[in-house]
């Protein structure tokens, strides 16, 4: 039986060259799998045909936009997932989804190998292969760029030698990965961490310093998941897409950070995630209104660990599954509406309301109608501070 390599195919130079290279190197048929996660750009049918023109035995295109938004972005939102308290896991969320469809194709086409275009320096190799190890543990992985030291110069020469239908003249100064949840930009002049990003870097967001009229939006949540904008029921994908446009028009969601990569190096990354940042900001505020104090405190530590697991490629891991169960339970009362103003690079919460609110006006007010019995506070404060008082007396006694 002929070996078959299932390749994660983007339509770009590296993965297009990988098709004839893998066929030559392994003698196997190559099955190209392109997954639409809302990255935009070229038409997916054009990408499908290009894979065939480059020598693929089969070319599969998967429209996973709604699946990605509902089953990967929404769990990240419920977990307020921000790696290093800033990065909303743009690329880290798409990799397990792509791996899932690679595994499905490997089973459908009797694939003996799976391949991706990642280098040995980044996080994505780990994300793909950790996911594949959980989903199709008996299938071997080949990574041409990493395993065969495949450089861009070699790829261009190989493409020209084979006469592949790829325009190798257009070379972006940046390495870009994008999907509906956001956009990641790195390399080029950004590798000097003293250099400021220029407007040319950005695509999802407009310059926040340009004067514009503010945009007010009301986001409706049900059990931690957004279900409507301004009273219009929408799917998760539609909500993210609309907020990308509306928040992006005001420059919301720009990030410039030096990031701790899983492989142990620090890397300068520029991100823009207008919809993600607006939604996480709104979701956090609704949790402030509806989640009890101790649960909220503990969930913050769970959220951080959840984000680290996903960043590290462990989407399909026992701990991640268990944290999912905790987060889902913690979201059962996170329903209501958040009003936000989008303006000058910020998404600012200006109103919140919920049937499940724990905010009690009669207890919070300092005006007439205050129902809080302040006479109880004195004894509470004395008992609360008693351990510290006893310890301080002990320390004074012992010098």
UniProtKB/TrEMBL annotation:
Residues involved in L-citrulline binding:
87, 123, 127, 175, 259, 271
Q: Where does ATP bind?
A: 8-16, 117
Q: How does it assemble?
A: Homotetramer.
Q: Which PANTHER family match?
A: ARGININOSUCCINATE SYNTHASE
Question: What's this protein's name?
Answer: Argininosuccinate synthase
Q: Which reactions fall under this protein's catalytic activity?
A: L-citrulline + L-aspartate + ATP = 2-(N(omega)-L-arginino)succinate + AMP + diphosphate + H(+)
Record-annotated Arginosuccinate synthase C-terminal domain positions: 174-390
Which Gene3D superfamilies does this chain map to?
Answer: Argininosuccinate synthetase, chain A, domain 2, HUPs, Single helix bin
Q: GO terms for molecular function, please?
A: argininosuccinate synthase activity; ATP binding
Question: Per the similarity annotation, which family is this?
Answer: Belongs to the argininosuccinate synthase family. Type 1 subfamily.
Q: Which PROSITE patterns match?
A: ARGININOSUCCIN_SYN_1 (PS00564), ARGININOSUCCIN_SYN_2 (PS00565)
């Amino acid at each position: 039986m002929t070996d078959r390599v299932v390749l994660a195919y983007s339509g770009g130079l590296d993965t297009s060259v990988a098709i004839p290279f893998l066929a030559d190197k392994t003698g196997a048929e190559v099955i190209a799998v392109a997954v639409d996660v809302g990255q935009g750009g070229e038409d997916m049918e054009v990408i499908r045909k290009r894979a065939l023109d480059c020598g693929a035995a089969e070319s599969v295109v998967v429209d996973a936009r709604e699946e990605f938004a509902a089953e990967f972005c929404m769990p990240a939102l419920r977990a307020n997932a921000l790696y290093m308290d800033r990065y909303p896991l743009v690329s880290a969320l798409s990799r397990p989804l792509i791996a899932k469809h690679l595994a499905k194709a490997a089973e459908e086409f009797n694939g003996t190998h799976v391949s991706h275009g990642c280098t040995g320096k980044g996080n994505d190799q780990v994300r793909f292969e950790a996911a594949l190890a959980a989903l199709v543990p008996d299938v071997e992985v080949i990574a041409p760029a990493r395993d065969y030291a495949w450089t861009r110069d070699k790829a261009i020469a190989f493409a020209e030698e084979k006469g592949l239908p790829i325009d190798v003249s257009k070379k972006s100064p940046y390495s870009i990965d994008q999907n509906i949840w956001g956009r990641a930009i790195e390399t080029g002049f950004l590798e000097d961490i003293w250099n400021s990003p220029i407007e040319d870097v950005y695509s999802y967001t407009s310059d926040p310093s340009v004067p514009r009229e503010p945009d007010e939006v009301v986001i409706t949540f049900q059990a931690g998941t957004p279900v409507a904008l301004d009273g219009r029921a929408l799917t998760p994908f539609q909500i993210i897409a609309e907020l990308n446009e509306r928040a992006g028009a005001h420059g919301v969601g720009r990030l410039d950070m030096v990031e701790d990569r899983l492989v142990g190096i620090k890397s300068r990354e520029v991100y823009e995630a207008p919809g993600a940042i607006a939604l996480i900001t709104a979701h956090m505020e609704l949790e402030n209104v509806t989640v009890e104090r101790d649960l909220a405190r503990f969930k913050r530590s769970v959220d951080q660990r959840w984000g680290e697991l996903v960043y590290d490629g462990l989407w399909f891991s026992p701990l991640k599954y268990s944290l999912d169960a905790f987060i889902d339970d913690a979201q059962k009362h996170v329903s209501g509406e958040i009003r936000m103003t989008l303006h000058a690079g910020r998404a600012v919460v200006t109103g919140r309301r919920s049937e499940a609110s724990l905010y009690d006006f009669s207890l919070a007010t300092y005006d007439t109608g205050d129902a809080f019995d302040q006479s109880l506070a004195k004894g509470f404060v004395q008992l609360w501070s008693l351990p510290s008082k006893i310890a301080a007396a002990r320390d004074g006694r012992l010098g």
